[in-house]
Amino acid sequence: MSLRERWGSRSAFVMAAIGSAVGLGNVWRYPYVVYKSGGGAFLIPFLVALLTAGIPLMILEYWLGQRAQAGAPQSLKKTHKNFEWVGWWALMAALILTFYYAVVMSWCFNYLYYAWSLPEWSPNAKDFFFAKVLQVSSGPFDFGEFPYVAWPVVMGLAISWISVYLIICKGVARVGKVVLITVPLPVILLLILVIRGMTLDGSGEGLKFFLEPNFAALKDPTIWLSAYGQVFFSLSLGFGTLIAYASYTPKNSDITNNAFIVSLADCGISYMAGFAIFSTLGYLAFSQGLPVQDVVSKGPGLAFIVYPTALSLMPLGAILAVLFFIMLLTLGIDSLFSMVEGVIAGVHDKWGFSKGKLVGLYCIFAFMMGLLFASKAGLYWLDIIDHFVTEYTLLLVGLFQCVAVGWFSNISQARQEINKQSDFSLGIWWELCIKYIAPVILVAILGSSLYQELQKPYEGYPSQALAIGVAMTASAFLAGWLFASLKGRHHE
Ligand code: PFF
């Protein structure tokens, strides 16, 4: 049997895991989730989610991958023979996520290109984003005129996939080197943007929005769902990615300390991003004489419309915009290739195909599937599918992982093994979280949000569009079963 690939060092693994965790989600998702979900009060569900599910599951995923020295499906199979499908399901979710994650990266490539001419387009930043770059149509079933896609987005998409190919086609040793740049660089850039933001007039007003709690919002179960969804998404849990990354570490390497380092780094960076975004929003509101509520927009509009508009009002705004989009790109690229790596590891472990070829095929296939999201109706599909994948599938995969280890294998023994090799020991709380707390909370949240979903269609989209979103999510599940039932070459 061939030897498993290895990271160059422990720090290469930690850096790559941080690179996976810290991504567009920290800047593009976290601030708007906070904004939607009770401002400062959101920290409570977020920390609860982090402690009861995020960190315990990250430890679990590291352990699964390291023990089995294999990607998600084989690692879960080693826990119990009937759970291989959960691993494939996770990988299918990752596959779908990469289709549109790369499209968001493509928007960033476009914005990097246009950032230099920020003063020209910023007075119409909204039109620029929707009409010029994305060329958005009137609804999910309106693909506009031939060729149905927005060319700037397609070109950016091609650049995203070519970059991913070049980085991971030669294995994790090269990844370990790339993350030496793509992890620290965006943090330095973010720091510059935080300092710039905090020294602007009106920044305090904006920050109030980020920091001042609205406790009444916590009564809404969807906010708790968003917190768990955000923690899972942000820590890259439930996608099989971390399992694959951990499988490239030697069997006796540290788990617990690494998991704490990675998750705390990720949260710290999300929090920093909140400061950068909200202080700048405060400045924008101040400059335009509006209340902060009126300048905050939901969704990607925050990073692609509002933030650039605010930058355009500052001296050297175009340069800051360039830094901002370089930051988004370097944040995103290591997250994107980590997902790809997770899927490739799963396929390679089961069937033994050459990794280089698999990466090439993956990039071409994902580029083609990404065309849906690069189409003129792409933004709607991105929103719908992101909702189902990140707010349901991830949590379900997490739930099944907890059940597999907590109920179908010896979790106390798992804790002993983890403790033997880690810098510090896990208490019994970890077992309790995996076995009882996380599953109960996950079931409660999934149940209540399903109820809400049935009461009120997501964002008022037509039911046929939502049905397609559900079908795509369900097909990930079915594909999971199918892959698990196929015969493989290794480990069978
Ligand atoms: N954690 C990444 C982010 O916050 O943007 C997204 C992500 C990367 C999710 C890798 C899942 C994954 F496997």
Largest sheet: none
> Low-confidence parts lasting 5 or more residues at pLDDT below 50?
none
Count the strands?
Answer: 0
Count of DSSP-assigned helices: 22
Structural class: mainly alpha
Rg result:
22 Å
What oligomerization state is this entry in?
single chain
**C-alpha geometry:** globular
Average pLDDT level: 92
Overview of this structure, please?
By secondary structure, the chain is mainly alpha-helical. It has one domain (10-485): Amino acid/polyamine transporter I. The protein is built from 22 helices and no strands. The chain has helices at 10-21, 24-36, 43-68, 72-79, 84-115, 118-121, 125-133, 151-168, 172-182, 184-198, 203-211, 221-234, 241-247, 256-288, 292-295, 301-312, 317-351, 355-373, 378-408, 411-421, 428-455, 463-485. Helix 1 packs across helix 17, helix 3 packs across helix 13 and helix 5 (84-115) crosses helix 8. It is globular and about 60 Å long. The model has no long low-confidence stretch (mean pLDDT 92). 4-fluoro-L-phenylalanine is lined by residues 20-21, 23-26, 94, 233-234, 236, 239, 241, 335, 338-339, 342.
In summary, what is this structure?
The protein has helices at residues 10-21, 24-36, 43-68, 72-79, 84-115, 118-121, 125-133, 151-168, 172-182, 184-198, 203-211, 221-234, 241-247, 256-288, 292-295, 301-312, 317-351, 355-373, 378-408, 411-421, 428-455, 463-485. With 492 residues, the protein is mostly helical.
